[in-house]
Amino acid sequence: MFLEAERQFGLNFLKTLPAHNESLVFSPLSIALVLSMVHTGARGRSKEQIGDALLNGASDDQFVNHFSDVNEKIRSGTNGVEVYVANRVYLNKGFTANPSFLAVALKNYGADAKTLDFESLTAVREINTFVKEATKAKITDIASKDSIKNAVALLVNAIYFKGDWEDKFDGFSIADADFTTYSGHVKKVKFMKEFMWDRGYSSDDIFQVLHLGYADQQFQFSVFLPKERNTLTKALEKLDARRFKTLLSNVRRTFMNTQLPKFTIEREINLKTHLEFLGITDIFSDSANLSGLAKNIKISGGVHKAIIEVNEDGTVAAAATMAKAVPMSMRMETPVDFKADHPFMFTLSFMNHPIFLGVFNG
């Protein structure tokens, strides 16, 4: 019911990042799940600001039901798809969280709150160990002594995704090829190249979109490539939740020539700056009303870290492999060319919920 508002939050957050000049990745859903827990403990304007930014128009009950439902379902990946989400609120010593808040956070979002001495190296090690274990060591150093110094409370979030392609790249080749960055610099990157094969595809007047499914068909990876070269920033200005939905929904199996870079992106983001830009300001100020969580507390900072790897690996599913057993020479139609050799946006979605959004710039 509120999926469009959730998508809009992700796109709005993306537009606060320097998407025009560097590669990046973040998880709007994972950020929303952490803020949902804070929303549980917030009151008054602090609560309203979170609700308006994440799920505009939803009542408190609808807000909780929406994100708790997604949080539960997304963890049930099958057929080789793994999703790990690490959410926790750490409280500095001297603060005691409301027991009812802890119970609700654990029940609805699979998250807990824990008190540590933020002045100690033990706190840093514990936070990093928590994240490391949750992400199979893909993320190991989200916290440092300086980053948590003087904090009253700390939002820590990490997400890790791994999934095998439902329809692996068959007959592909890996080769270096030119990629033109936003600044116009041409560099060599490794491309996965596949010619004259069926892939999921959609398009409109601004974007070509390549859709790659995973072995668990609830998940999908989509590449939004501007039709006009090096116009990603301009194209993103016109990408709202409605256009996003249309391009994700109108997927057709299409005869294609596909050239897509291999890439790994890891990114750490200071949530406070970007959330304030989106109107979530009270929880970081002395005006914060988090009385449902603890008395006299505010959120002094938030750290989010995400990692994504895209390569040629995939799962050989029997139905998909057999469906592809059509000789290329029998196809008389002209293939659609999808050559991602200039900056593009990507999303990894779960039942059309954007769990990752990012930009590749070479």
SSE arrangement, N to C: HEHHHEHEHHEEEEEHHEEHEHEEE
Question: What is the CATH architecture assignment of the largest domain?
Answer: 2-Layer Sandwich
Number of strands: 14
Count of the domains: 2
The rounded distance between the terminal residues' Cα atoms is 36 Å
Could you name the ranges where pLDDT drops below 50 across 5 or more consecutive residues?
314-332
Question: Per DSSP, what share of the residues sits in E-state strands of 2 or more residues?
Answer: 25-35%
Average pLDDT score? 82
Query: Structural class of the helix and strand makeup?
Result: alpha+beta
CATH class of the largest domain: Alpha Beta
Counting DSSP H or I runs of 4 or more residues, the number of helices is 11
The main β sheet shows up as: 9 strands, mixed
From the 3D structure, determine the CATH topology of the largest domain. Antithrombin, Chain I, domain 2
Helical content (DSSP H or I, runs of 4+):
25-40%
CATH superfamily of the largest domain: Antithrombin, subunit I, domain 2
Q: Rounded to an integer, what's the Rg over CA atoms?
A: 21 Å
Shape: globular
